[in-house]
Design brief:
Blueprint (H helix, E strand, L loop, with lengths): L4 H26 L2 H10 L4 H12 L6 H28 L4 H18 L11 H29 L25
Length: about 180
C-alpha cells in the first residue's frame, strides 16, 4: 500500500502496546498475592521471559532472564505493530477506526493470551485472565483513538466511484430504437 497506511498502523500498534503495558502493570500491582504466586509458579519470570527463552532455544541459545525479557518484549511490540497494521487496513476498507482497534485488541486477547494457554487455562486465577482483558481492551481503545486521529489528519476519504459515474461524466445511453 503506497498510501502509508501500514506505516501508520505500525506506529499506532507500537504506541498502543506501550499504553497496554502501562495498564497491565497497574492492574498487576493491584492483583492478590495468591494470583501473583500462581502466575510465577506457572511461568517463572513471567510470560515474556518464558517466551524469550523458548525463542532462544529455537535459535540454539540459552538466554539469561534479562536477555529473554528483551526478546519477549521485542516480540510483544512486533505483535502489537502487526495488530496495528491490520487495524489500519480495516480502516482503509471502511471500518470505523475505534471498531477496528477494538476488534484487533479482542483478536489479540483471544489468539495470544487465551489461545496460547488453552492447556493451562483453568490453572490461572480469574484475576490473571482479567488483566489480559483490561490490557487488550486498553490496546484496542488506544489503537482506535490513535487511528481516529490519523484518519482525521488524512482528511476525508476519497471513495472510488464505479466507472462512468464520476461528477461531470454522463452515462452513454443508446437512443431509443438504436441497437
Amino acid at each position: 500500500m503506497g498510501d502509508g497506511r501500514l506505516a501508520v498502523g505500525a506506529l499506532v500498534g507500537f504506541a498502543s502496546s506501550v499504553i497496554m503495558d502501562q495498564a497491565t502493570s497497574r492492574f498487576y500491582a493491584r492483583q492478590s498475592e495468591a494470583s501473583k504466586r500462581k502466575e510465577e509458579e506457572l511461568v517463572p519470570g513471567g510470560t515474556l521471559v518464558q517466551l524469550g527463552k523458548q525463542l532462544g532455544q529455537v535459535a540454539g541459545r540459552d538466554l539469561s532472564n534479562d536477555s529473554a525479557q528483551r526478546v519477549g518484549v521485542a516480540l510483544h511490540r512486533t505483535l502489537g505493530m502487526s495488530y496495528g497494521m491490520a487495524a489500519s487496513l480495516l480502516v482503509g476498507r471502511g471500518v470505523r477506526p475505534l471498531w477496528a482497534g477494538l476488534v484487533m485488541g479482542l483478536a489479540a486477547f483471544a489468539l495470544v493470551d487465551e489461545g496460547t494457554s488453552i492447556s493451562t487455562f483453568s490453572d490461572y486465577l480469574m484475576e490473571s485472565h482479567m488483566r489480559g482483558v483490561v490490557g487488550h481492551s486498553t490496546y484496542g481503545l488506544a489503537a482506535g483513538l490513535l487511528l481516529s486521529l490519523a484518519s482525521a489528519a488524512r482528511g476525508p476519504r476519497r471513495r472510488l466511484s464505479p466507472a462512468g459515474t464520476e461528477p461531470g461524466c454522463e452515462a452513454k445511453v443508446p437512443a431509443a430504437g438504436v441497437p
